[in-house]
Amino acid sequence: MGKAAVMRIFLISSNIANTPYSVYPLGLSMVASSLHNAGHEIKQFDFLASNRSVDELVKEINVFNPDIIGVSIRNIDNVNLLNEQRYIEAVRDIVQKARKVTSAKIILGGSGFSIMPEAILDEVGADYGIVGEGESLILDFINKVENEIPIKERILRSTPSLKGKDIPSAYYDQRIMQFYLKSGNVASVQTKRGCIHKCIYCSYPILEGDKIRVREAKLVVDDIEGLINKHKAKYIFFTDSVFNDDQGNYLKVLEEMRSRRINIPWTAFFKPARIDDKSLLLMQATGLKAAEIGADAPSDLTLKNIGKSFLFEDIVSCNDIFARYNIATAHYFMFGCPGETKDTVLEGIDNIKSLKKTVSFIFMGIRILPCTSLAKIAEKDGLIKKGQNLLEPVYYIAPGISHKWLEEVLTESFKGMRNCVFPPDALDSSLAFLHKLGYSGSLWDMLIPGNAKRNRKRKDA
User: 129 — phi, psi (to 5°)?
Assistant: First the structure.
């Protein structure tokens, strides 16, 4: 089998979601890194950064004249029952416009695609799709195309297999990065892949595997230094599904940051766990400003029923220790979980209101995704049919809970509460406006009583 020649690969981030803040297309840039390292010529295009302009897309395709087009799909929809927004139509438009100006093969990938590949490929009309880690699969695909090896399957699959040392640094695109820095000044970094937890609704273990694969701390911090020095990033977002893993790998990253005297505002997703003072001091010394805590359900019963291994008192303890170090926290809570009753709804509301110095975003229902335990429960409860196409959003709300009652009680309970946001997108336009004014970071911490004052980054910084 011959070695693949240099090919021109046009990579498109199709994401159009920019709430609660715009997030750099890290996965796409990691695939770009793999292709670049293999010697191919790469062009990265971000649909959101290009103001969703199909004319700009067509222009860039014509100029670059690609051999292959890769389209990354980050999200299928906004998982918000009360204000549903589908994103697949944007992907279909991208593919259709590309078809008119190029004969290049079009291949889909990304976390959103991997969740329900057959349905999306049929809906969008691309040539092929990749399910799994694109860094290796895309190279196999290109080699077959170059060597005219027949590709029998429309969807190429692999289980998550890259070892931590093989997960590449992102090939950050300067032009795209500048858009995201102007839209909140947040730059993305990944320290590991995989999730060992068994939340019934979550696709992370399916997408990234159920074992943690850790990148070397030195390489992660090299990425951070590059973002600071080359791209002038002012805020780091660690994209790991859970940053504070039980093995303490995250502490190695922070220790490496401290050893290099790096202190930059950063945020990450945390699971509610007991974090000792030594670890908090290390986080604070490296710049932690805001922690997004994966609470997900607000009562002990619903926590158990969605597969969590902690109780609400653990959420309180975790929240309180962050508050003690003046680190802003945000929680995300879903109502309507399996086993939910009117009593647990009311209990959950009281529990959320009891949390101190934090912001809570409240969701109604849980988006059902294929191959999850929740999908099996929904089948049993008669909410979906076996094999049902879930590209059209379906939300789980426990039988016996009226949608109308739940929406009314949540609306009334959190009305006028600045730090309890329902529906969860109620403040999106306000946060986007503040980013345009030059404020950086997540910004939801401004909703915490006493946290309204923030420094504003200079426009020319």
Answer: -145, 155
Report pLDDT for 184.
Answer: 74
**More reliable by pLDDT, 5 or 268:** 268
Q: Categorize the per-residue pLDDT at 262 as very low, low, confident or very high, splitting at 50, 70 and 90.
A: very high
Which of 83, 20, 15 is CA-nearest to residue 431?
20
Q: Which residues lie across from 192 on neighbouring strands?
A: 214
In a domain, 132, yes or no: yes
Type of residue numbered 115: I
Same domain for 398 and 305, yes or no, is yes
Predicted local confidence at residue 460, as pLDDT: 39
Contacts with 55 (C-beta within 8 Å, 6 or more apart), sequence order:
none
Cα distances (angstroms) measured from residue 399 to each of 283, 293, 345, 369, 384: 42, 28, 13, 18, 12
pLDDT tens profile 16-70: 987 766 789 999 999 999 999 999 999 999 999 999 999 999 999 999 999 999 9
Rounded-to-integer distance, Cα 446 and Cα 444, Å: 5
Is 8:65 a contact under the CB 8 Å cutoff?
Answer: yes
Domain boundary among 133, 164, 195: 164
Place of tokens 């715009």: 22
CA distance 255 to 105: 45
- Quote the domain boundaries for residue 408: 185-447
Chain centroid to Cα 30, Å, comes to: 15
Q: What is the DSSP letter of 241?
A: S
Which of 132, 164, 196 is the endpoint of a domain? 164
Task: Read off the DSSP letter of residue 243.
Answer: S
Average pLDDT over residues 229-251: 95
